[in-house]
Amino acid sequence: MKYCYKCKQTLSLDEFYKDNSRPDKKNPLCKVCLKAYTTQYIINNPEQRRATTKKYRDNNLEKCRKASRISKSNNKELAKEWVKKNIDKVRIYKATNRHKRRGAIGSYTPAQIENLFKLQHGKCASCKQELNLGYHKDHITPLSKGGTNYIDNIQLLCQPCNQTKFNKDPITFMQQMGYLL
Questions:
Q1: I need a labelling partner for 168 at 20 to 30 A (CA). Which of 89, 145, 174, 177 fits?
Q2: How far apart are CA 155 and CA 125, in angstroms?
Q3: Strand runs (DSSP E) across the chain, as ranges?
Q4: Are 22 and 29 in contact (CB under 8 A)?
């Protein structure tokens, strides 16, 4: 028998979901109350869920950090496996974080990059050479000149073109390449 603090009833242990983080290995809410809570607060109100989670983390910073360290140390091999399988996602996450630190807004997904590759027919946006050996994701309007990190400001360039462009204005760069008068 266990007491549900939400509905204030004492119920059999079968009426509670398993929760290994608790001493008695059972959730403090009965199945009915937990389902109602999940529907009301988590599914229908994600803003409130985020606010509640943030408040908890702010009030229990050390506890959350310790749990995170433990989780990371227990799952190092799984994390390494995931990184190997999702190298494109990892590169994009790292680039997005790097750009956010520089103050850029926006982000893009691996699927959007694949779509951009198809739209460019697998060719460099500048010199039109095949991008078989790899490509660089270039900001059309550089971040240093107020560009965003949204997909509509990204183009795929070959390495020589991207290194030549660096942080130049797109018009200036294309004029230097001889494409614009």
A1: 89
A2: 7
A3: 2-4, 9-11, 16-18, 26-30, 136-139, 154-157
A4: no
Q: How far is residue 151's CA from residue 106's CA, in Å, rounded to a whole number?
A: 8
Q: Which class for 126: exposed (0-12), middle (13-18), buried (19 or more C-beta within 10 A)?
A: buried
Predicted TM-score of the model (pTM): 0.58
Where in the chain are the domains? 2-43, 85-176
pLDDT digits (tens, 9 = 90+) for 79-100: 899 899 999 889 988 988 898 8
What pLDDT, on a 0 to 100 scale, did the predictor assign at position 54? 92
CATH classification code of 85-176: 1.10.30
- Residues β-bridged to residue 2: 11
Report d(CA 124, CA 132) in Å as an integer.
10
